[in-house]
Amino acid sequence: MARPVRLPDEVEPMARFVEETPPREIVREAVKRLRGGVSEREMMVAAALAVMRSTEMPFVHHGGPLHPVAALPAVEATMGRMEEGLRWLPLIQDVALANRHIHDPASGPSIMPEIEPLGAGSADATVEAFRRCLGRNYTSGAEHHFLWLLENAQGKAVEALLSVAVDNYRHDEHKLIAAVNAFRLLDRIGWRFAPVLLRGVVRYNFMPSVWAKAPPAEGVEALIERHRLKEGVRWEGEDADERVDGLRRSLVEVSLEETPERIAVALRGGMSLMGAAEAVSLAASDLFIGMETASPMGIHFMTGANAIRWVCRAHPPLGVRALLMWALGPETRGAVRSRKRPVEAPGRAGLEEVTEAIQANDGAQAAGRAAGYLASGGDLRALLRLLGEFAARDDSTEMHAMKHHQAMVEEFEGARPSLASVHLVAQAKEAALHAGKGTGVYEEAREALM
User: Fold this and answer.
1) Is a pLDDT exceeding 90 seen at residue 450?
2) Are 224 and 331 in the same domain?
3) End of a domain among 73, 102, 131?
4) Of 188, 342, 350, 372, which residue is least crowded by CB atoms under 10 Å?
């Protein structure tokens, strides 16, 4: 008879708090517990494990544990940029979303059962058995094999799941983002929670995708073979600003079909893996700034580029394939195909003018004014705090705003100074697309916190 997964004794009570508190009470009760001595880390762990074990992962990537868990690295980082009285707001947003999904009949409640690890004789054979489950969408079989790998060969477990997620990127960017952000979260809270936290990620990656039709992976493999990219690619090193900027501009201007080829040619021509990842990320922000969109949630070609850059840095052998897959992602394809309008040259602007454009939900104006603010030497810390606060107020996008905010901050900080500002300009535009459209959690939390 199946038994529900039980968490460590020190975690179980807080996880049950997230699971069992009525949604109408969760904001004030979370504030009460944080004020009563529950640490931020304890609340993060409770939210992540509760929503992972008590909701189903819908293949349509809304509801369930995907976004509450994937947002937690961003939540932790953004808390450090909030004004002191509202520091906990990003965390309360995440706890409220986890609780809402648990109580939402579309994804919960569900019970994650205890299961036995299942090996296939050796680590390599178990990796092969794990990957074979993908062809038939055997989610349960994949979970059994993955748990065995976690116990007996953790490095191979991570590499195997990441490899599947990279291959799945062409079907759905969320597949890779879920894996990367779960790994990043475990680096913060401890890998002892991996057997619960990663089971949902495995399950999601072995489900059919909402976008079943995708470009064939054979094109990527052919590029890797033709340009001999399995060996000889520099993982990191100096790349001239002009080369990185040249690839960036090329990726914005060329056709969808030419995009993977341009990345492959740049790598074969001597650009480092990290240099190409920087160019891809810059191009993603350029595409977003120029496209006609009213959706604050169609941002995964940017957060996906951020995840791919993490792959290039942390697991470089998978980096080449990940970079080429970026061009095949459904939201990249949508961004490249969408009608673009020219971006006006920025004039001088103050922080108040940036704020006004965001509050008016004018994405183009917010982007232009943010560019002007940065070009005229505006206070970077003040802009980061402003954008972080808009992201933390939002409860209409399932934490997309929070994830995009942190991804753009990381990309800004990781890019060369001469090119970096485009990421914060893109973030200002995204903030304008969601500002004020869902702030109920913010309003209740602010009353409780201040």
Assistant:
1) no
2) yes
3) 102
4) 342
